[in-house]
Amino acid sequence: MRIITWNINSLRLRLPLLRKLVEEETPDIICLQETKVHDDLFPQHALDDLGLPHYLYKGMKSYNGVAIFSRYPLELVDHFPEWCGKKDCRHLAVSIGTPDAPILLHNFYVPAGGDIPDPTENEKFAHKLNFLKETTNWFQKTPPTRSILVGDLNIAPLENDVWSHKQLLKIVSHTPVETESLNEWINTGFIDAMRQIIPASEKLYTWWSYRNKDWKKSNRGRRLDHIWISPDLKEKVQNITVLSHARDWETPSDHVPVMMDINPS
DNA sequence: ATGGTCGTCGTACGA
Predict the structure, then answer these.
(1) Tens digit of pLDDT for each residue in A130-176?
(2) Which family does the record claim for this protein (predicted)?
(3) Catalytic amino acids of A?
(4) pLDDT, tens digit, for every residue of A164-174?
């Protein structure tokens, strides 16, 4: 089973790139974040011929939004709270029908958190920390089994998840309070599948800012996108690939897709 | 030293 997660930064603008991604990699499942389209305007007919006939989406006007496309039947899993009491379309959970037991798949878009890393001065940062606290509490009560969690978590937790650990310690996405919060969440019972395949001693990024003229030359990236698995799937992971070349596509997203091959049977 | 660039909506705001 091949799963891709991608912050597409506007589904409607990048429909041709989604098509290209599906043609090149033939995934069985794609999880998107920042679709930025209200459900009423979801371009489903433009996607009829993708070969991923099962899909679910949760979107709003302009901001956020998540979607999942699948070759296999999906069932919405909706017994989750509205995180932070907001209906801001940051989480979609589905059960994937496989020949064996189903797989529970979470697609998350964690709040970015604004620029100032102080919850008393910046309510977006407070929202981010509260979001992490709520998800952590929830998974503590319900440790994951046969589960995959993917998405744009907007935190680069390890030193080699950023281009300069020292220079980013006070930059939102790599502050100690964030990386510690993310560690608490993953420690509710997940494994960082990307770092199981690509050792923590290697630099690994999934996002490069639009603000650098030459993303490849400056290479000031961060690993903001993640794939986590429950321990019972640990031996099933076959490969993980960061599709960095997608950053060079025409009108690219600032995030690149991350792909996992897993044999869940 | 502190810009720099996108996408969406509508000429600001979030990332």
Answers:
(1) 999 999 999 999 999 999 999 999 999 999 999 999 999 999 999 99
(2) Belongs to the DNA repair enzymes AP/ExoA family.
(3) 109, 152, 255
(4) 999 999 999 99
Predicted model pTM: 0.97
Q: Which nucleotide is nearest to A255 (CA to C1')?
A: B15
* CB of A10 lies under 7 Å from some atom of strand B: yes
Q: What distance in Å separates the CA atoms of residue A221 and residue A201, rounded to the nearest whole number?
A: 16
Euclidean distance between the first and the last CA atom of chain A, given in angstroms as a whole number? 10
Q: Does the CB of A170 sit below 7 A from strand B?
A: no
| Residue A150 and residue A226 in contact, taking contact as beta carbons nearer than 8 Å | yes
Q: Which residues pair with A30 in a beta bridge?
A: A4, A69
The CATH superfamily label for domain A2-262 reads: Endonuclease/exonuclease/phosphatase (3.60.10.10)
Instruction: Give the nucleotide with minimal C1' distance to the Cα of A207.
Output: B15
pLDDT tens for A4-57 read 999 999 999 999 999 999 999 999 999 999 999 999 999 988 888 999 999 999
Q: Is A174 annotated for ligand binding?
A: no
Q: Where are the domains of chain A?
A: 2-262
